[in-house]
Amino acid sequence: MSKKAKRLATMKIKNVTLVKTAFNRAEIFNDGRAKIIFMGRSNVGKSSLINTLCNRKHLARTSSRPGKTVSINYFLVNDDFYFVDLPGYGYARISKTESQRVKKLISYFFEQIEGVALVIILIDSRRGFMDSDIELLSKITQKNYKILTIITKSDKISNSHLKNQTLKYQKEFGLYAIPFSIKSTHYKENILKYIEEALNQ
Question: Which of 65, 104, 150, 161 is most buried per CB count within 10 Å?
């Protein structure tokens, strides 16, 4: 059975390893494997989502202090493809120098990266799309990547508000959205299925 067919048949995450952290442009690498990109504002819940999808509690480090992730982290999944966790952006309390460094690192990443199967943009349900999200979205849509929006901390808002947000992202930005909360694994399989489909396209 081919690797592609095997993904389609299972999409079970059996093993995952942090294999690379990139702090500068020279450390960004490509090795021919497909990549699932996770990006969003600081403290939006990227680490929690990655840990949930991988059934690991401390694979991606979580923190109550926004702006802690300042490197690009490559997680090799099933010895087959990467989950790539980009630094959080838009946090005002880090220095301007560090904020600019993170912004440039993300820009360098999208200039150099190959094999992007899916970009997952995480949006805090309580805040929606903010200016920094729109700015970054406008850049990556020019590259015609397949995009999935994850509405995080979905337990913090009402079901009607959540539904309205989902419809708004579809109507205004043409983005498919899936809710997510660390308090429930209800939508985990939906997210994994979307990732699976992206890898097989």
Answer: 150
Identify the residue whose tokens are 């970009």.
Answer: 119
Range of the domain at 127: 3-199
Alpha-carbon gap, residue 186 to 189, rounded angstroms: 7
User: In degrees rounded to 5, what are phi and psi of residue 145?
Assistant: -70, 150
For 90, list phi and psi in degrees, rounded to 5. 85, 10
Task: Provide the edge-to-edge strand list for the sheet that holds 72-77.
Answer: 16-22, 72-77, 81-85, 35-40, 116-124, 147-152, 176-179
* Residue 95, helix vs strand vs coil: coil
Per the structure, the count of domains in the chain is 1
Give yes or no for residue 6 having a pLDDT over 60: no
Cα separation, 80 vs 63, in Å, equals 28
CATH number for 36: 3.40.50.300
CA neighbours closer than 13 Å in the CB half-sphere of residue 88: 24
DSSP string, 101-167: HHHHHHHHHHHH---EEEEEEEEETTT-S-HHHHHHHHHHHTTT--EEEEEESGGGS-HHHHHHHHH
Whether 67 has a pLDDT exceeding 50, the answer reads no
Rounded alpha-carbon distances, angstroms, from residue 156 to 87, 135, 144, 181: 24, 25, 32, 9
Q: Which residue has the tokens 């109507």?
A: 171
For 159-191, write each residue's pLDDT tens digit. 888 888 888 787 777 788 888 888 777 788 899
